[in-house]
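pinging the channel bc i need a second pair of eyes. not urgent but kinda urgent?? the chain im working w is below, pasted from the shared doc
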Amino acid sequence: MENLLKKIEELRERFLKIRVLLDIDGQISESRDKKRLMSEPDFWQNREQAVTIGKRVEELDSEIKRWEDMEKGITELEELAAIADQEGDDSFHDEAQKKYDELLNRFNDLEFLVLFSGKYDESGAILSIHAGTGGVDAQDWASMLERMFLRFAEKKKYKVEILDRSVGAEAGIKSVSFRVSGRFAYGYLKGENGVHRLVRISPFDAEAMRHTSFASVEVIPELPETEDIIIKDEDIKLEFYHSSGPGGQNVNKTSSAVRLVHIPTNIVVTCQTERSQHQNREIALKILKAKLHHLEEVKREAEEKKLKGETAQAGWGKQIRSYVLQPYQLVKDHRTEHETTEVNKVLDGQLEEFMEAYLRWIKK
């Protein structure tokens, strides 16, 4: 019993430490302030801002409740353990041990949030997938990755909005971009940025030969409205074209889709999610700003590493992860060395193990 009491005391100490690190008291204050703002008569005059604030309060309250429930659980466990110690009854001890194991698992999930320490980790993300060389196999692989990330977002209850999608002639997709909205979406997804490699028997090869396909994944954070990136009009080439995909006859009749080219960097952004040119242009500009900001962040980080004499990580063109379906089954991340033989689960969106391994790896 003495050993269990010590474990419970350690759990309480860990809980208090992480609670401070995550500034739960600060989140409680923020929620209270925003609720006060929501009660003002003119709150809904700016509907877009009101929806954003309402969603933030919902996220904060959900997070606060998890920590309050954890604290309540620890307190109840301490009381149960004290009774078990006084009574000397094995049944009380077994119940306390079971409750401790359950609380420890719950706490480990909460403690994982400490790994989200990046500036934009709490933000939403804009994720793009591009088929690499390899023809129809690469395009099919890109569509498999698209499904994988959509399934991950679904399980996390994140909102997903397709911004642009180009379908392959025979199968799969040439590219897709979508916005993932939800707390820590970027924190989870940022480690997926890079080249993903697939090895399998090609379903498109009559001789059933093994093929290797590549697809690149780009993940950038959605910038808060406060981030001000200046883009000169003369630096942008703007084109309109017919949208493709769902939407009925109106999609093909109007040139509502937008393509922006940032001339100095040659960054291209396309958007066809809305029916109006104006809306698509605004979304495309927002994405372009995010891409330019991310480009500056990458340059700054590379310069800091150069000054510190650190070895650069594997860059563009080097796969970050391999998915082998034949002759054996294995998914392996080449940065963290984390791997699993449960390929189907990974392709069905169970990516948390790889994401956690990446977050721990970058903190080393």
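so Residues 246-253, 308-317 have pLDDT under 50 and may be disordered. and The two ends are 37 Å apart (CA to CA). — does that match what u expected or am i reading it wrong
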